[in-house]
Amino acid sequence: MRMHLKESNSHGKGVFASKDIKKNSSIFKLFGEVMHFNKLLKIKNTTLRWNSIQLSATDYITPKDFSIYLNHSCDPNSALIIKNKKAYLKSIKDIKKK
Q: What is the pTM of this model?
């Protein structure tokens, strides 16, 4: 596995590299239920709603893996790539093991 969870300096748990990752590498695919926005609004679990990721104008994925721990960065080293209603994390810089 290229990634692992550990405590972040700023936002609780976060996802970190287990080994160096080169720029433009595919890191992992996000797994979870893909659902229409209207169905998402009906979910009572607010944590699940907050962690959902928009895939298209109307479709969202509710991650079921450690991708719920991806943290925002003003200087990101990776980006979500949305293709055919699927989400992938790709490195946009070289990432050093942490």
A: 0.78
User: Hey, CA dihedral for 87, 90, 92, 98, is it positive or negative?
Assistant: positive
Give the HSE-up count for residue 60: Cα atoms under 13 Å, Cβ half-sphere.
17
pLDDT tens for the 98 residues of the chain, in order: 688 899 988 778 888 999 999 999 999 898 888 999 999 999 888 888 888 889 899 999 998 878 888 877 889 999 989 888 888 999 999 999 98
Number of other residues whose CB lies within 10 A of the CB of residue 62 = 21
Q: Residue 22: CB partners within 8 Å, gap ≥ 6?
A: 91, 94
Contacts of 11 (CB under 8 A, 6+ apart): 71, 72
Give the dihedral of Cα atoms 3, 10, 52, 22; nearest 10 deg.
Answer: -30
Q: Where are the alpha helices (DSSP H) in 1-67?
A: 37-41, 46-50
CA angle 54, 41, 49 (to 5 degrees): 55
